[in-house]
Amino acid sequence: MTTANKLTLLRMALIPVFLGVLYAGFPGSRYVALGVFIAASLTDMLDGYIARHYNQITDFGKFMDPLADKVLVMAAMCWFVEAGRMPGWVLAIVLFREFAVSGMRLVAVEQGRVIAAGWSGKVKTAATMVCLCLMLLIAAPAVGDSAPDFVASISNVVIVATTLYSGVEYFIKNRDVFKNAK
């Protein structure tokens, strides 16, 4: 197994640790969870660099790396929905985009074509991870406090905007996939 693939597996293993720490709710658990989330996010950048730089690109990595990213992000977003810091429709938009792009890629594969991750998809992933980190770092206002949760509100807008933009871009750039579909 390559080093890049080991890092992807590490990211997958960190997801239940991240959630376990969040749900444990001990003093400072958000900060420990933030550290775990950052470590998992950094393995994404590192495994991609190693795979490209040392020619360790594998079928396992092509499948598991994006899956690990999606599961990490979705796990955090589910927790934020449950905690009341993210509306469910934000998560629904992100899920819809991920399923739609994955479906398009499956259709393309049937045509012998691979749709690589685009720049906007990478920006979307990075922006989403940064927003989730900010939401973990900066606590929500106390219950009963009339102050709005500006960090969550701005983060949700950024997540939705980058998700929609990258999804629309993927479909516009690859619209011929559906014209050629059987």
What does this structure look like?
By secondary structure, this protein is mainly alpha-helical. The protein has one domain: Four Helix Bundle (Hemerythrin (Met), subunit A) (Up-down Bundle). Helix content is 77%, strand content 0%. It has seven helices and no strands.
Looking at this protein, list some descriptive labels.
182 residues; mainly alpha
Q: What fraction of residues sit in β-strands? A: under 5%
The main β sheet shows up as: none
CATH superfamily: CDP-alcohol phosphotransferase transmembrane (TM) domain
Query: What's the order of the H and E elements?
Result: HHHHHHH
In the CATH hierarchy, the architecture is Up-down Bundle
Would you give the CATH topology? Four Helix Bundle (Hemerythrin (Met), subunit A)
Q: Can you give the helix content as a percent range?
A: over 70%
- First-to-last CA distance: 37 Å
Principal-axis shape equals globular
How many domains would you count in the coordinates?
1
Count of individual helical segments: 7
Question: What's the average pLDDT?
Answer: 91
Rg estimate, integer Å: 18 Å
